[in-house]
Design goal:
Number of strands: 10
Number of domains: 3
CATH architecture of the largest domain: Ribbon
Number of helices: 8
Radius of gyration: 24 Å
Length: about 250
């Protein structure tokens, strides 16, 4: 969320007029003009120094970190912004992937919307409150850890899902539980757990990538291979472990 939008949100949550905000800032020892505040609100002035953001936040009874962080992000190089946006997207992807089989669609969409609308400053504050965190990126494994090395989440953390057909029999049988790992890139001949668009059930297939298409190959000859556009399926993850009930 750009600085000026966050500022407008914070001001809108109060009953103060711009004149009252200016007056209250004066009482806290910081003089800003109404025209300057107006320019900040209308994106006609770059974000101010952190000191001014803190004063305005205190007047509006808001978490001063929100404006300070958004101010720095507005002025930060694209590479810095991309790190935080990517980290938020990874967190969203990982969380939603784990939740989708355990909650109803309405709740799922509600949580997804919260993620999508969450300001980056809010996300960063959550990370700060979880402890000093860092992201470890190695061989497509994204991990978020606290300062004391406790794992907050790992994109490759195994997720268990029950298989709903026998397309990969005898390797994978119907009702076997599949433990998958979620990666940002998969390779030819990986066995993937997939769901076709507009279908509820999930299935496992051997994958061959052909540009924008993917060939999904069953082992059980009762099923046919399918060549589909990669946008027409949902890849849930790579099969890592099979748990069979005897």
């Amino acid at each position: 969320m750009p600085y000026y939008k966050m500022l407008n949100k914070i001001v809108a949550d109060t009953n103060y007029t711009q004149e009252q905000i200016v007056e209250q800032c004066e009482k806290l020892g910081k003089t800003i003009s109404k025209s300057y505040l107006n320019k900040l609100l209308n994106n006609k002035q770059p974000p101010p120094k952190a000191e001014i953001s803190r004063i305005i936040s205190r007047v509006c009874n808001a978490d001063e970190r929100l404006l300070v962080i958004e101010g720095y992000l507005d002025k930060a190089p694209k590479e810095i912004k991309d790190v935080f946006f990517s980290l938020r997207d990874i967190t969203m992807f990982s969380t939603l992937n784990m939740l989708q089989y355990h909650i109803d669609n309405k709740t799922f969409e509600y949580i997804k919307k919260i993620f999508e609308n969450q300001p980056i400053s809010d996300f960063i504050i959550e990370l700060i409150e979880n402890g000093n965190v860092y992201m470890d990126i190695e061989e497509n494994a994204y991990e978020l850890k606290s300062k004391d090395n406790n794992l907050i989440f790992n994109l490759l953390q195994p997720i268990g899902i029950k298989i709903e057909d026998d397309a990969m029999y005898p390797i994978i049988k119907k009702d076997d539980e599949i433990v998958i790992e979620v990666k940002n890139k998969y390779a030819d001949r990986d066995i993937l757990l997939v769901r076709f668009n507009n279908e509820k059930n999930v299935t496992a297939r051997l994958a061959i990538f052909l540009g924008n298409d993917i060939k999904l190959i069953p082992i059980n000859n009762k099923y046919e291979s399918k060549l589909v556009n990669i946008n027409d399926i949902e890849i849930l993850g790579k099969v890592k472990k099979i748990i069979t009930e005897i």
